[in-house]
Specification:
Number of domains: 2
Mean pLDDT: 86
Low-confidence stretches: none
Distance between the termini: 30 Å
Shape: globular
Strand content: under 5%
CATH architecture of the largest domain: Alpha Horseshoe
Number of strands: 0
Length: 149
């Protein structure tokens, strides 16, 4: 996983960035720390804590800063098997920026599908299609179509 909206780095790049994070902006430092714990060490609990710091730091901004950490919280929660929490976090990210990115819709769709809530997933998929934000939803839409039959 890479922090939403940021490119995925190779393991050695993540480690080097982590070593050099001192003196960076909070956004950059927390993003690097989240990537390090989630992708490099696999410590999802620590990665979740860093993302929670990011959402608190940027609370109320509805800018990419908060949305990135909020969306990543949803993904980490799902990876930890906390599907209800993952849905809550993913929905919050989508509420912050509902017309901007297909990846936010994908997070919500994956959450609904993880909870076997197909009807809600269908409604979200339709909303994304209506807004022209279904370009990155191929695999999730395929899974939804399979479960809808």
């Amino acid at each position: 996983m890479a922090l939403w909206g940021r490119p995925l780095l190779a393991a050695h790049e993540i480690e080097k960035a982590f070593e050099l994070r001192t003196g960076l902006s909070d956004w950059e430092r927390l993003g690097i720390e989240a990537d390090y714990y989630i992708s490099k060490t696999g410590d999802l609990v620590k990665g979740r804590q860093v993302c929670e710091q990011g959402t608190k730091l940027y609370a109320g901004s509805a800018k990419q800063s908060q949305v990135a950490f909020q969306a990543e919280l949803g993904e980490v929660s799902k990876a930890l098997g906390q599907y209800d929490m993952g849905l809550k976090e993913s929905l919050q990210a989508l509420r912050l920026r509902p017309n901007t990115d297909a990846l936010l819709y994908r997070g919500v769709l994956r959450s609904y599908l993880s909870l076997d809530r197909v009807k809600e997933a269908e409604a979200v998929a339709e909303e994304a299609r209506a807004k022209g934000l279904d370009s990155h939803l191929g695999g999730v839409l395929y899974g939804l179509a399979f479960l809808s039959r």
